[in-house]
Amino acid sequence: MNKSTISIKNVTLIFLIALASVISVNAQPNISKMESLKTSGYAPVNGINMYYEIHGSGTMPLVLLHGGGSTIETSFSKLLPLLSHYGKVIAVELQAHGRTGDRNVPESFEQDADDVAAFLQYLKIDQANFFGFSNGGTTTLQIAIRHPGIVHKIIDLSGAYQREGFVPGFFDGFENATLNSMPEPLRNGFLKVIPDQNRLQVMFDRDVARMKDFKDIPDDEIRSIKAGTLIMVSDQDVMTAEHAVKMSHLVPGAQLVILPGYHGACIGEVCAAKESSKLPEVTALLIEEFLKG
What we know:
Blueprint: H1 3-6, E1 11-13, H2 17-36, E2 39-45, E3 48-55, E4 62-65, H3 72-76, E5 89-92, H4 109-122, E6 128-133, H5 135-146, E7 151-157, H6 184-193, H7 197-212, H8 219-223, E8 228-236, H9 241-250, E9 255-262, H10 279-292
Parallel strand pairs: 1-9, 4-5, 4-6, 6-7, 7-8, 8-9
Antiparallel strand pairs: 2-3, 3-5
Helix pairs in contact: 2-10, 4-5
C-alpha cells in the first residue's frame, strides 16, 4: 500500500498532537467528575451476569467493547476519562472476561453481539453508539449487522472481519498457546478484578478457541451495514491497514483513520501504553468529532 492509497476518498491520516495537548489540559478537571458519576452493576443477559459501568450522563450513550483477554480497565483506563466531554459512556465486560460470568457454550462474536443487544434492552436503551477495540471491534461489526435498530454509529478499532485481515503469522501463535503465552499485563489485569486463576484459565481457553476457529464475515454482510461507521487502525497493528481500507470501501459512507503506533497504542491499552503519549487524546478527539458529525 503506497501513500496514494492512503489519500483516496474516505481515507484520512491525521496527526493532531497539538490539539491533543489542549484536550489533555481541558480533560483533567472532568476526570473526577466522571468518577463521581460512575455507577456499576450486573445485568442478567442470556444466561450470564454481565458486568457494566456507566460514566457521565447524556441521551445517546457510547458503549465500549474491550479486546480479547481484557477487562474494562486494561483496554480503556486511559481513554475513558478523556471521553468525559462526550456524555454517557457505558463499558461492559463480555462473556468470561473480568467480572462477567461464563456459560457452557463457546465464545463467538455473534453471541457477544446478541448479549450486548440484550444488555441494552435490560437498561431500556433503545439506541446507542458503539466503540469496539480489537475483538470488541469485530463484535461491533456484528452488532451493526445483527441488530441494526439499536445502532446509531459504530467505531471499529483494529477489529478485522476476515482472517486475511490480520498480519502474516498472527494465527500461528494460537496453535500451542498456554496461559504463560498471555501478556503479563493482561493476566495481572484480570486477576486484579477477579483473583481466581481458574476463571482466568477459562477466559484464556475461550479466547484461544475462538481465534483458532475465526470465521470470516461475508463481504455482503459488511456492505449491509447502514450505520455511520468509522474504521480505525494503527500503522503497525495486528489488523493490516490494507484490510481497514478494504472495509472502509465496503461499508457505505464509512470513514477511515490510520494512526501511528502498535496495537492498542492509540487508546493507551495496558500492553501498549506510554506515559508521555498523546495518542489517547488524539483518539478521544477523533471519536467525539465523528459522533458529533
